[in-house]
Recover the amino acids of this structure.
């Protein structure tokens, strides 16, 4: 099953490589990983998407918790949560396709953030499935570049992952 | 007090109560060595190879329970230490390794003797630190010791760029009394509800077994384990790392379990209905084939590291905590409980165990005219009255030492179990002897293993560590040869050396005593002579039966109930190879 693990980690040099190294050394699957500072500059927040059986996910969370730099973590998939991913897609356009692309981007609540006579860059956020769905509507031959952030997430309700 | 980084490091180690540093100098640590030179409290042991430093510090740590301390230079000094760091990591041994690093401004420029020590050691340390500010040096050292020695212990590397120890830069020094790390809070006492549940399960067992491991030694809980086991009257088996945690000569002890464990221990595991694993980690050498592991048992597991629990074998009652407080609580609950162990069931369980014991799986040919390695260990046990510190290397000799030296006390059996590092035994023995100068320290080794860190014989002379090297010389990498005999139709591919040094001369060249023997009747007198020489290191080169194998054995892919036993006790002469 797919799991989204959200981690608060000390903002130390090398903290990221400890997490990445753990996954490669133990042969765990890692689909995406995002890292950025939090409101407290001494900590970073990492969101990691992985897949595995219950037993493997249990080991992954235990091994992550065991890293000295990891302060706290939660498996978002275990409760109600919101998930978002940012995508930018550069699409080759021809005069007869430009309107259609704009319309579809609109439907997906995307925005066109760069325009040249022959291309658009569409910006879009949403769940990964929504971004996949958008890409499926675009003629793959016209896609020049896809840049995705990987999902980040937050739990619903009042409770949160903090110190 | 204003001190330079070099002085701060040395002073921090003093404040930490460090007695010995095992090290080797070089460019990146010269400031530090200069600071060491100007004091007398900490004794520096100059090894002959950095791997030796790590194993010696490790041996010291295993024997004393205190963290071992290592100091090496950058680049090759640091990489030479890696095997020893990984060895300590696999067996959860507390160790602090200080490595020099090139000056901060040139890090990343492929400077002379630069290597990314933090990156290289990341997968084989509990944690590592790169010191980036001399003002944080003392605190970092404190953290290193704190992390290394608490929770599940392990090695910690502190990488110190040369500019940090610059004698010209002085800063205020204060060694923190305590550190807190918000991201590191190891569990201590276990969950009360879980402990209660475990006790209920234990008391309702009819074929129980106590499976204890290195965690009992690491957690100083032998006394508690012994009381707990006696209270219940259940059979006890130990892992290779747990030997000594429960007295081997006690009647409840059924021997080691696992690949080269006893028949009775493995059969009892297989047939048991309740297992309590105490500070043991279900290593594959212990479990054999996982699908066949303990099919009838409910399992309780006490471990301070949650990641050890249900890693390979799913357990029924996990208890995260230190063995000592958890066992104390269990003992109390058992005493309070109206329910007592099922006497009748236990009686027939022990009866069954006695039947397995009657197989006498550790019997060997005592009439042989060749020296049997098992016999040597038995004699070693007698001559040292079972009270020596025994270090070992890796191979058949290690298994024989584990099987035939009956350790009654923890921290007496010192070997590399998890990584299985040949070369460990000799430097480890030096570390042990430094810690306990009056104790008998024996290094049981093989002619291949001992050559991997043989240079440390020179260290042994310099520091007058009078150890006894028991070289079970079978002219083979016996353990490899055994596997080749069993699984590769005796194709002995590169498991022997065409040239083996004359160890007697070698010992003498290093300034020690060398004795070579090849007859069984010489074994005891030679051992007695060796141990009588209180102030000399003695190298006993014992020419053993080269065809001897370690029995019993669980072969790859088999379960506990499917052990290979010594088939017949035929004379070894007809099995002797050319
Ligand atoms: C040639 C060779 C053959 C071998 N054959 C065998 C064999 O036949 N049988 C065998 O048993 N081994 C054998 N081994 C050793 C094996 O590889 C493992 O090293 C060993 O089985 C592990 O022992 P352990 O389970 O006690 O764990 P250890 O490695 O000692 O780990 C200790 C466990 O206790 C936990 N712990 C630590 N401190 C505490 C505390 N204070 N409180 C609670 N928990 C704590 C740790 O988290 C860890 O899970 C062999 C090794 C070699 C090299
Ligand atoms: C550094 C290292 N290299 C290789 C091995 C693989 N290995 C395990 S046992 C063994 C043979 C050891 O031979 P010896 O020291 O003579 O001991 P014996 O088995 O003959 O008693 C080897 C090569 C190892 N454990 N460690
Ligand atoms: Mg040999």
């Amino acid at each position: 099953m797919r799991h989204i693990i959200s981690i608060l980690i000390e903002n130390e040099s090398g903290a990221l490589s400890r997490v990445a190294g753990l996954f490669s050394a133990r042969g765990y699957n890692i689909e995406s990983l995002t890292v950025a500072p939090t409101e407290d500059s001494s900590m970073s927040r990492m969101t990691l998407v992985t897949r595995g059986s219950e037993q493997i996910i249990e080991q992954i969370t235990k091994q992550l918790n065991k890293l000295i730099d990891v302060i706290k973590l939660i498996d978002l998939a275990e409760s109600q949560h919101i998930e978002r991913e940012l995508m930018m897609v550069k699409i080759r356009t021809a005069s007869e396709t430009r309107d259609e692309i704009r319309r579809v981007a609109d439907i997906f609540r995307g925005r066109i953030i760069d325009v040249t006579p022959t291309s658009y860059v569409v910006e879009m956020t949403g769940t990964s499935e929504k971004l996949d769905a958008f890409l499926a509507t675009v003629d793959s031959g016209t896609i020049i570049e896809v840049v995705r952030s990987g999902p980040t997430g937050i739990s619903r309700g009042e409770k949160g992952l903090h110190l | 007090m204003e001190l330079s980084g070099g002085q701060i490091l040395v002073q921090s180690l003093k404040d930490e109560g460090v007695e010995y540093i095992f090290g080797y100098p070089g460019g990146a640590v010269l400031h530090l060595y200069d600071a060491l030179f100007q004091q007398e409290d900490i004794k520096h042991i100059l090894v002959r190879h950095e791997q030796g430093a790590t194993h010696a510090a490790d041996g010291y740590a295993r024997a004393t329970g205190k963290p071992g301390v290592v100091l090496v230079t950058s680049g090759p000094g640091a990489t030479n230490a890696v095997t020893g760091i990984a060895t300590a990591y696999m067996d959860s041994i507390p160790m602090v390794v200080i490595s020099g690093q090139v000056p901060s401004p040139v890090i990343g420029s492929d400077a002379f003797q630069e290597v990314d020590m933090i990156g290289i050691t990341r997968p084989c340390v509990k944690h590592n630190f790169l010191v980036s500010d001399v003002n944080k040096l003392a605190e970092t050292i404190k953290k290193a010791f704190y992390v290394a020695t608490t929770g599940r212990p392990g090695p910690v590397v502190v990488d110190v760029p040369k500019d940090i120890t610059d004698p010209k830069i002085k800063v205020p020094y204060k060694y923190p009394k305590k550190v807190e790390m918000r991201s590191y809070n190891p569990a201590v006492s276990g969950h009360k509800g879980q402990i209660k549940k475990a006790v209920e399960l234990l008391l309702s067992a009819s074929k129980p077994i106590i499976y204890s491991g290195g965690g009992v030694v690491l957690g100083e809980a032998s006394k508690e384990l012994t009381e707990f086991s006696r209270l219940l009257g259940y059979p006890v088996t130990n892992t290779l790392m747990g030997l000594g945690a429960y007295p081997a000569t006690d009647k409840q002890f059924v021997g080691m379990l696992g690949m080269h464990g006893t028949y009775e221990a493995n059969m009892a595991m297989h047939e048991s209905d309740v297992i309590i694993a105490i500070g043991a980690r279900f290593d594959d050498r212990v479990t054999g084939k996982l699908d066949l592991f303990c099919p009838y048992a409910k399992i309780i597991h006490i471990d301070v590291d949650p990641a050890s629990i249900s890693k390979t074998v799913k357990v029924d009652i996990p208890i995260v905590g230190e063995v000592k407080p958890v066992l104390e609580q269990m003992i109390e609950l058992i005493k309070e409980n109206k329910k007592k162990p099922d006497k009748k069931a236990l009686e027939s369980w022990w009866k069954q165990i006695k039947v397995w014991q009657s197989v006498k799986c550790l019997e060997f040919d005592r009439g042989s005219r060749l020296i049997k390695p098992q016999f040597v260990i038995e004699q070693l046990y007698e001559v040292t009255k079972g009270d020596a510190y025994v270090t070992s290397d890796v191979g058949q000799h290690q298994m024989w030492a584990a099987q035939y030296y009956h350790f009654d006390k923890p921290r007496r059996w010192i070997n590399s179990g998890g990584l299985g590092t040949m070369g460990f035994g000799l430097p480890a023995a030096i570390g042990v002897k430094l810690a306990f100068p009056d104790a008998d320290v024996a290094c049981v080794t093989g002619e291949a293993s001992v050559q991997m860190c043989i240079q440390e014989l020179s260290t042994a002379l310099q520091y007058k560590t009078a150890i006894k090297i028991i070289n079970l010389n079978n002219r083979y990498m016996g353990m490899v040869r055994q596997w080749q005999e069993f699984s590769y139709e005796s194709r002995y591919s590169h498991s022997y050396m065409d040239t083996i040094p004359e160890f007697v001369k070698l010992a003498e060249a290093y300034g020690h005593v060398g004795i070579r023997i090849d007859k069984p009747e010489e074994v005891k007198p030679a051992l007695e002579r060796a141990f009588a020489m209180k102030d000399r290191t003695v190298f006993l080169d014992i020419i053993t039966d080269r065809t001897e194998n370690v029995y019993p054995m669980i072969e790859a892919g088999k379960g506990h109930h499917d052990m290979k036993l010594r088939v017949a006790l035929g004379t070894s002469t007809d099995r002797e190879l050319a």
